[in-house]
Design brief:
This protein is mainly beta. It is 6% helix and 42% strand. Strands 4, 7, 10, 13, 16, 19, 22, 25, 28, 29, 32 and 33 form a 12-stranded mixed beta sheet that branches. A hairpin with a 2-residue loop joins strand 28 and strand 29.
Length: 344
């Protein structure tokens, strides 16, 4: 049978066994969508204009929904911790030279409203050692676009907390403990980001999903992470595709996630290219938890040089009440591994 036909059948079966709850998926944002924040006025920060602002936060405070704030680089770096609480576009003159520095005090930029665009900045120096501190912290908001930024030396690069339908695309994320974290955040697109560090050894997380569903993680290039892509704690029905993960401890790691589709990724020179932990949790009065049915398909594994299915080693952990039974070795398979990496 033609290989494309087989792949199509497998994907159709995958979609078939994943029922879609309309209350959960009332809208799926698509790549190429634009976020309309209106036809407002433009406010300027820096530069030589007579009414230009000195501080970015002052311009945000004076802006109306739909306005654009353009930030010149001549006053850079801007030592500020920004809170964006209205639908605006925040645009830097040049992402290499327009710098917002958080001075290691909390998050550098915090978004608490919908329909915000942030583009063309270097965003650096959030707090260290505080879990939610990030270069950009998106808090309970949706339909934001974060693109074409350099996000440098933060605790987390970008942190989405209970935030849906956002686009994070084309960013360079460097030298943080973690790069992109989706915490209870659904229907987001994470694409075309370059995630690495300049230390030359695996540190921190690349892209982490926790209790996050229906997200599309695609065409990201991740290197020198402890875990390149990590799917945790009942995260389900995410599509992980066309990513490069290399020079990391774990390439793709699934622990407690279910019904995720992992296909056409390149896994290169990682200590362990793929690993999973499936959970069975049985407690009286609590809905059982079964984290299975992840599909691996058409990935490139640099440690596998055969047309045969590539085994993926993992374990099954059973919890009865509050007792954890010793883990049982288990296997998943990439049924059609590729013999060569993608051309990127």
């Amino acid at each position: 049978m033609n290989r494309r036909v087989v792949i199509g059948i497998i994907c159709m079966l995958f979609v078939t066994y994943m029922p879609v709850d309309n209350s959960e998926v009332d809208f799926i944002i698509k790549e190429g969508d634009t976020i309309d924040s209106g036809d407002g006025k433009t406010l300027y920060v820096g530069g030589n204009g007579p009414n230009n602002y000195t501080h970015i936060q002052d311009a945000i405070n004076d802006a109306s929904p739909g306005d654009t704030i353009f930030v010149y680089d001549d006053f850079s770096p801007y030592y500020e911790n920004l809170v964006i609480d209205k639908s605006i576009k925040l645009i830097g003159e040049n992402k290499e030279t327009t710098v917002i520095d958080g001075m290691k005090k909390g998050s550098v930029v915090r978004i608490v409203h919908n329909n915000v665009v942030i583009k063309n900045f270097t965003i650096r120096n959030s707090s260290e050692g505080i879990w939610e501190a990030a270069g950009i912290f998106v808090d309970n908001s949706q339909s934001n676009v974060i693109s074409d930024n350099v996000i440098l030396a933060n605790n987390w690069g970008i942190f989405l907390n209970r935030s849906n339908k956002n686009i994070i695309s084309g960013n360079l994320i460097l030298d943080g403990w973690g790069s992109i974290f989706l915490d209870r955040s659904n229907q987001n697109i994470i694409s075309d980001n370059l995630i690495t560090n300049e230390w030359g050894c695996p540190v921190g997380m690349g892209i982490l999903l926790e209790e996050s569903n229906f997200n599309k993680i695609t065409r990201n290039n991740i290197s020198y992470s402890e875990v390149g892509i990590c799917i945790l704690d009942r995260s389900k029905k995410n599509v992980i595709s066309y990513n490069i993960v290399k020079e990391s401890c774990d390439g793709i790691h699934i622990c407690g996630g279910k019904e995720n589709l992992i296909f056409y990724n390149d896994l290169i020179n990682n200590e362990r290219n793929g690993f999973f932990v499936n959970w069975i949790v049985l407690r009286v009065g609590v809905k059982p938890v079964f984290s299975f049915f992840n599909i691996w398909l058409r990935n490139y594994w640099d440690d596998w040089h055969s047309i045969a299915p590539r085994p993926i080693f993992g374990v099954v952990t059973v919890v009865l009440g509050y007792y954890i039974i010793p883990s049982i070795p288990w296997l998943n398979f990439d049924w059609m591994p590729r013999s060569s990496p993608q051309s990127h």
